[in-house]
What does this fold into?
Amino acid sequence: MDSIFVNSKNVFLDTVNPKDYIQLDRVSTIYQSLKDSIQKPLKMILLFGKPGTGKSMFLTKLYSELSESQAIFLYQTPILDESEFYKTLAQDIFDTKFVGELNFTQFMKIVKNKNLEEVPVVLLDEAQLYSEELMEKIRLLSDTRTLKFVIALHKTEKEDLIAKEHFQTRIWETIELENSSQTELQIYIQKKLMKANCFDTASMFHTKAVHKIYKLTKGNYRDTNKLLYTLFDIYCIYEENNQLYSLKTNQVSIKYIEMAAIHTGLINA
Amino acid sequence: MLNIRDLEKRWLHYKIKSYLPYAVIGISLIVITTIVMILANKINETGGTKKEIKVTASIEKEKIQTAQKRTTPAKEKTSHKEQQKAKVEETRTEEIKNKPMFHAETEEKLLLKPSMSFLKNIQNQQQEPGYQERKPLASKRKTVQTAPIKEEYFSNEQQIQKRKTSPQNTTTQKEVETQKSVITIERRDSQKDIDDIIKRFKKNNNPALSLFVAKKYYELGDYEQSYNYALITNGIDNNIEDSWLIFAKSLVKLKKREMAIKTLREYINYSHSGNAKILLDDIKTGKFQ
It folds into this structure.
């Protein structure tokens, strides 16, 4: 049987699993609004935020929840080749296999011929990697109202430009994801640990420790996961070396948080 | 697998680095405060030694001056006495000079603690011909003229004596009398002249000069300055009636009537000065305002 520290460490593995989704008040509200937006007859939804704010998790969660009830397709890694993009969409959405090059006109023909009753939802993660030309084509596709796109992209100046110039008039819903607050971060950590039955380690995170974590990660979920993974890794090593007696196990030591931050690069030492 | 030892070392370095600015600031603050304290102490010490040096230097100068001026044994006696007086009261006058020009409260303290040396001065009063002899001459003109008269009077006397001793210019007593009658005392009121007298006073610390300055300032209507110089004069020699009178008058002019009355009473108590009594009555009745 693994020790509590090993279990706790595994909780913070950086994976996008809808089961690991943590219900936080603000995040739940945003998620609900996204779900509602999909039901609306809108053309496009833009989901944006800094890296590590949970965009991929949002899309995954949405996909896992809606996939049973409606036609929804998730593309976590971007298909950069235009022909390949159309071919993948044609195959996944319209069950049409196409041999050779497939251009935009040909794909539009397929879309019109199929004329599906229910508008399929296409979830595109990391959309900032798509070329501007392809993004323009996606915009034209959404204009036909035969496909609904949910685009998740990083919030940078470039992405803001895409959002403003190409899609501003067509986007019906813009949802911004932000880093968590300190209170939210404490709830996030403790809920995550308690979900994995790590109650002892969950109680170790007192306000001072969470404040330190918050200062280091600025409430970024990805950075927090990385930091806490390394933190519990440190505890595991001390445990393996039978040095746990020298540590306080009733609360997280600031020293080990800082050590984990040094290792993950959050502190430049 | 994490290298815990390396990580701990890096953490230690990080901690030292993070506390370093605070430590540097703290240490520098301590260093600065100690330097400031040391400097302040040094300034105080050097200030003290400078004063001593000044005093000794002025005494040396006076010695040289008096040695040059030695013409009669009586004069020598008086100058020697003046030197001794200056020695004793130099520090007092320096303190007074270093003080701001007008601080009634602190100066009042000085007034309320008169130097007991005035008793000696009273005893030796008659042995000071320089001051006593000048009085009638000064009273003929104006009391304010005492100091410059003294200088000119002495210089003339010296000239006379030189003439007497020199074989070429053998002059009779009559001639001396005519020489005396020829003396013209110019009344000079300009600030520059007062400044010259102040310079002279600073050199030889003669109370007659400071009294002259006090009177001059009083006449010019600068009662603060007249107060200050009367105070300095009292500090050097607290047995000069005119100085006390000017002091009291200045106080009245400076709207310190009560203080003037108090001071005069103190002075009358030990000197029984008639003029002081008259002035006190005038102040009390409101004749002098």
User: Anything to note?
Assistant: The CA atoms of residues 89 and 236 of chain B lie 6 Å apart. Chain B touches chain A through eleven residues (CB under 8 Å).
